[in-house]
């Protein structure tokens, strides 16, 4: 494995020095990877979520905490601040926003990554047979929470732009860079809604110096996935030496999981994608669209922890078949919309 600290230093030295970020859902997975990558770039990062060392009752099945994430952010070169927040409760998010305003006067980067739907998703079942309560809870956790957080965070981002600095930016973390169906009605609604939220917010922010984009990782090597394959981040490539096929417990389908896993990416990869966009002075040209970690790695030149640039999109198309991503032609159907044609100066 490559020297992680040396690799990190080459990725984003002080690119975001002085920037204030909020990663909602920073406890584990993509959220933790994003928070640490922002720390690598020198940002101050509010790491929020429900799993705190002071109260683990909300997710007793996982050991990770927001305090651990904040410490990792600081160790990476930034300043991590852990604040236990349930992003489905408006009063808690409002209190968090007030604290950020009081301590730092504003916010430059918002990452909406609250999810928590793994245990609620039932694969290979039609919508009329799944647990309805679980599905509705998924919408609350992963859509309502994003809207609530953006509602209170956006006012902190207005007027933050300064000459020579990149604009404030909102990230909606999703799954997939296309409009295809995602295998479960509620899961599909959540992930497509993240893309649509990024677009809708971009339209309402179009006259402000605030950007809104959606961003997807590939096959994410999260803590849960590493545990599933019985490896760590240090030795995950050992899975490729195994010849036996694994059964995906989520989908119930037999697939060549080790082969797919060998094209996986660490959570830091999407984190470095966030840093690349957040430090790009011309990022407003990308507002309202969805991007992938693998495509942005080619555009901006960043790498994963081991110095590679995994490309889940190319691998998936070669192995499973071609699919169409959200491209210029796709977005041409979105703008201008009828409301904007009727009321061009509505906002």
Describe the structure.
The chain has a 7-stranded parallel beta sheet with strand order 3-2-1-4-5-6-7, with helices on both faces. The model is unreliable at 1-6 and 243-255 (pLDDT under 50). Helix 2 (29-40) runs parallel beside helix 3 and helix 2 (29-40) packs across helix 9. It has 347 residues and is an alpha/beta fold. The chain has one domain (4-220, 268-311): Rossmann fold, CATH 3.40.50.720. It contains 13 helices and 7 strands. The chain has helices at residues 4-11, 29-40, 66-75, 90-104, 132-157, 185-204, 223-228, 257-261, 267-278, 293-300, 312-320, 328-331, 338-342, and strands at residues 20-24, 44-49, 79-84, 109-112, 168-173, 210-216, 290-292.
Count of β-strands: 7
Query: What's the CATH H-level homologous superfamily?
Result: NAD(P)-binding Rossmann-like Domain
Mean pLDDT metric: 91
Order of helices and strands: HEHEHEHEHEHEHHHEHHHH
CATH topology: Rossmann fold
Helix content: 40-55%
Number of domains: 1
CATH class: Alpha Beta
Kindly estimate the percentage of residues that lie in beta strands according to DSSP.
Answer: 5-15%
Keywords, please?
globular, Rossmann fold, disordered N terminus, alpha/beta
């Amino acid at each position: 494995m490559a020297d992680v600290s040396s690799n990190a230093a080459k990725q984003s030295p002080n690119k975001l020095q002085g920037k204030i970020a909020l990663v909602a859902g920073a406890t584990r997975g993509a959220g933790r990877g994003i928070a640490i990558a922002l720390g690598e770039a020198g940002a101050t990062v509010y790491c929020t979520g429900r799993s705190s060392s002071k109260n683990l009752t909300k997710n007793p099945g996982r050991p990770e905490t927001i305090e651990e994430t904040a410490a990792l952010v600081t160790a990476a070169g930034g300043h991590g601040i852990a604040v236990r927040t349930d992003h489905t409760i408006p009063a808690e998010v409002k209190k968090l926003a007030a604290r950020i305003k009081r301590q730092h006067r504003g916010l430059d980067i918002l990452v909406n990554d609250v999810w928590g739907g793994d245990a609620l998703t039932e694969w290979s079942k039609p919508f009329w047979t799944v647990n309805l309560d679980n599905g509705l809870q998924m919408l609350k956790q992963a859509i309502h929470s994003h809207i609530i957080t953006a509602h209170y965070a956006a006012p902190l981002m207005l007027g933050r732009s300064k000459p020579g600095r990149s604009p404030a930016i909102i990230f909606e973390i999703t799954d997939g860079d296309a409009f295809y169906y995602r295998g479960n009605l509620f899961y599909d609604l959540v992930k497509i809604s993240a893309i649509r939220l990024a677009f809708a917010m971009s339209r309402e922010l179009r006259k402000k110096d605030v950007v809104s984009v959606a961003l997807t990782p590939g096959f994410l090597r999260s803590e849960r996935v590493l545990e599933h394959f019985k490896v760590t981040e240090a030795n995950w490539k050992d899975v490729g030496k195994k010849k036996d096929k694994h059964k995906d417990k989520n989908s119930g389908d037999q697939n060549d999981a080790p082969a797919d896993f060998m094209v996986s990416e660490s959570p830091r990869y999407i984190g470095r994608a966030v840093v690349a966009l957040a430090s790009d002075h011309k990022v407003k040209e990308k507002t309202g669209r969805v991007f992938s970690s693998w495509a942005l790695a080619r555009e901006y030149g960043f790498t994963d922890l081991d110095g590679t640039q995994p490309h889940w999109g190319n691998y998936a198309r070669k192995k499973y078949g071609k699919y169409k991503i959200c491209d210029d032609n796709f977005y041409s159907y979105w703008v201008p919309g009828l409301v904007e044609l009727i009321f061009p100066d509505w906002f």
